[in-house]
Amino acid sequence: MPATSQQQVGSRGRCAALLLPLLLLSVAPRPGNATINIPSKYKIRDLKSPPVITAQPESVTTFSADDITLTCEATGNPPPTFRWVKDGVEFDPSKDPELSVSRDSGTFSLTAKDGPIHQYQGRYNCYASNVLGTAVSNEARIVTENTPTLQKEKKVSKKVEEGESVVLPCNPPNSTVAPVIHWMDKKLRHIQQNERVIQGRDGNLYFSHVTEADSRDDYTCNTQFPSARIIVLKEPIKLTVVPSNSVVRNRRPQMMRPTGPSSSYLVLSGQNLDLECIAQGLPSPKIQWIRKDGVLSESRTSKDSYDRVLRFKNISVSDSGEYQCTATNLQGIITHTYSVTVEGTVYGVMYSVAEGQMIELACETFGSPRPNVTCPLGEMGKITHNSQHIYIYIYIGVLEILHPFKKAKMNILCVNREGETWGALVANPRMSQLLDGSLQISNASLNDSGQYTCTVSNSRITITAELDVLNKTVIVKPPLALRIQRGKPATLTCEYQVDSRQDAPQVQWRKNLQKLTESSDSDKYMIDESTLIIPDVKEEDEGTYTCEVITTLDIAEASGSITVVDRPDPPTQIQMTEPKDRSVTLSWTPGDDHNSPVLEYLIEFEETEYERKEWEELSRVSGNSQRTTLSLKPFLSYRFRVIAINDIGKSDPSMYTDVISTPAAPPDSNPEGVRSDSIDPGTLLITWKEMDRRSFNGPGFEYKVMWRKVLGSGPSWHIKSIKSPPLIITDVGNFSAFEIKVQAVNEMGEGPEPKSTIGYSGEDYPLEAPLNVGVDLISSTAIKVVWAPIKRETVRGRLQGYKISLMYYGPESRREHVREGKPSNISFVMTDSNEEMKVLGDLLPYSHYALSVSVINNKGEGPQSDPLTFHTPEGVPGPPSSLLLDSPSETEMILHWTPPSQPNGILKGYILRYQQDNPMQVEKNIDHGVSHVSLKLDPHSRYRFYLRGYTSLGEGLPIIREGATTLDGVPPSNISLSTGETSVNLTWVSKERQRNVGFFIHYLKKDGTCTWKHSERVNSSQSFYTLRGLQSGSEYRLKIDFKNKTLWEDEIQTAGAKFMEVRKGFVTESWFIGLISALVLLLLVLLILCFIKRSKGGKYSVKEKEEGQIDSEARPMNNEGFGEYSDNEEKRTASQPSLCEDSKLCNDDALDDYANSNSVQTEVIMDESLASQSSGVRDVPDPGTQESSPLNPATAISHHGLPNSAALLD
């Protein structure tokens, strides 16, 4: 037997829906000369058979108090052995003491207990094995849950208007087990359900519309968990239905559950399926179900919940299709479409046959459309189902020969739907080695990729194969079914996932199976990889658009659609039929709805004889109506038009009809809101809400006003007709009761008999004030005010109550305010009309007050009673206004306070109580004139101080302070440092209760002089200080000294490059600077003396003074004498056009002689010195900005011309 090994083996995964191939294998003997020896003791009961699962385990959801049983039974010869796999790992139930295992099968069970059972949750498979192979059971799941409990939730209260829809939420506890929902009242009676009130599959209670009878406060959702044997009661919900202020209007249906136009379901055959439609509307909509792609089977479906639920039991593949529910009432229609897809299963059948016998292998399939099936013996069978391939292989094996070349028992197996065989399995449940050595892998995954080696025992034959599993190309976001308005852009997207090891795919778009490219119509389509854009949608763009993602290995495709929609066209052929006095029938022909059904029609009217001609809404009807009867009012001229409305918007108005006029008639109603708004005394003002002119019903419309006094049966009615309100009647007395009513009248007659109402004439101010006003003192802060009842005839109106005016004049010590009649504060208290006593509180003790009482009616306030003065007795004082603590030393505390702002009497003194951390309390009495006191306290304790004043009535409220004495301060020692290039930041935390103290921070540069420097004075309460003036890249020592003791010391190094200090020589010494200064001063004195001496003996040309300063400055000097000039030089200089032509100043030899002349040098120095000392005489150019060349005239004149000195000396 060959052996197969794998270099890389993946973990077991779930089997896919597509079945992997099992190779055809035949071990039947061929006819020939071969002989087979049959055992002499052979018996039929020894016939061997592979295991077959006869009882499958079933999934179960259990709670802590439930029993658990997983059944696994199988047949086979020899009898099979059983094992379990939980979540892909071997699981031996016999090793768990809590589990009991059956002897003859793999069944195990757990008896209910109080302990946790969550460890048993998981996915289980049962394996039954014997020498012929292994059978695998279906996967069963155990889901364990805690017993559902009611979570704390808020009470829900809903308030809606009559005719609206509402949903009462249930929100059952979270559980994988679906509970049974019961809506009941507080007496545990079920809420009556009908077409208007229905319970949804989600447990909520739906009202298509509410009535006033639905108002109640005990809507209770009861959730029952049968398997847990409990019922969870939810909080009752209160529903209040408010009556509508207007006529409740009918409403067209709208879907409440589900939402949207369509939804889809994917189910497996054999399961149950419920489709639900719950709609709102007024009146309650009727629900109808149809199958859009066929006939709805009455035998395979049933309806429940007043046709709101369509139920499938044991659904089959033939039930796949589209099902539509329609909700209809008088106002309109709405639909919802369910797309149901049912997937089938593939299963195997076992046959027993004899050699030479004809056998028919049944292969039943279902599908929509029906698949083509081929299954040739010995070859691969292929089932095509909805463009997906399911491969079926048939395994034929002769298990045992009864007689040579005669009858044989054959076992024919197909692979099951999860891609595993019931044949022999290797250790990995997904891999099986066939008899010919082939290796079969079920449900291949990425982890199965790798090299596989097959070796034949007793041989050197080795075959190596490499398997590479790639991800299937998947479209994760397919194109949608778009409804686009004409002229707007449409965008279809096709997002996909491709295995990264494949090349980039090609995306191909098709419209109605025809390829689309940008080049075919560059203005029509824009294709950007997986996105198709149509910038301007037109009618011809409707169709099905398919996106194909093409790789070298597979193709994925998905389809969407574009439906062009628009506003409907206006209705046509508007006709009026069946005209009557107060109605007319209007009919029309619908226009094109442009793929968006008309939801409703709006009928508008216009009054042709009214000055303001405008179209107004008259009625709305459902979209499937083409006629309606309109109610009209008398004495009006109408014309009508119709507008269609769909989801996109309103159509243009239709053509309007001819004018129809209704005849006049008496008024149908009377005005509303008839009342008396009388304000002025002795007058009766009757008013009402004016009627709409459309309710006049005829010409000559007036209001007939009637009134009479209420005197038993009363006198006859007074009548007056007017065009509009109000009507004012005078001289009727103050606050007299009248019956009043108003009737509508026109030339055709009177309206219905009106109902009368009671009104009163105008009120006047009260005449008198209450008598016998008195005050009873209750306490120092409360009084009781009493007075005699007022005479009703003096009120002259409706008595609203009494007004008490309370005037505060100040404390008892300020009686002058009472005499002067100047209250410092006035407050007012209102009472009811039936009160004749009032208690007033919150008064100030030991104070002067006065009060008066007056009568109030709707007109206003009457006269006040005479002021009644009183004063409140003495009370206890309020707390002192302030209390400050001051600690001059560690053992002393001084308390400063100010008197109470409200002494409430004569202050006798103060009581001071204070206590340490322990309960012991010290009390001290203090005279009322004292405002501070000094106490000796323990410096190690905190104290609480209570200071209160007292009068003869007792102690007042205290003022409370906490504190402790202040300790002597010391500089900080817990300092944090943060260095910069030229500074260091010092931070510390100030100690509590320590007095502020000043100190210095001393610092020393380690590689400099041995001189300590210190900072400015620093306070310990600062908590932060920056020491500046340091050098970068240098090391410093820092310390703080206090009382000849170093409290803190540290070393730092500043950041940055090290500062290179220049060594000081003798040049910077003070003695050298002084010596140089003295020499310069002496030289200056000598120069001044020399200058004065020479200036007295100088000779100057008269001509030079006359020609000007510029010509004088340009003349050269004579070396023979200072200040002497020749006439020849003067003439030559005056006739030269340039200073540098033939001049001695432009001659190098002359410059040398000039530079070697001591007299000249001396004069230049003196000239410059005097020029610098004389302000405003002459601007001397900056030497640094002038050239030193003698060719520069400005330079020569400024630095070498002697006339400069001469000019200054003049």
From TrEMBL:
Residues 51-144, 148-231, 253-341, 353-464, 472-563 form the Ig-like domain. CDD domains: FN3 (cd00063), Ig (cd00096). The keyword Oxidoreductase does not apply. PROSITE patterns: FN3, IG_LIKE. Residues 1102-1140, 1165-1210 are annotated as: Disordered. Its main location: membrane. Pfam families: Bravo_FIGEY (PF13882), fn3 (PF00041), ig (PF00047), Ig_3 (PF13927). Gene3D superfamilies: Immunoglobulins (2.60.40.10). GO terms for biological process: cell-cell adhesion. Belongs to the immunoglobulin superfamily. L1/neurofascin/NgCAM family. This is Neural cell adhesion molecule L1.
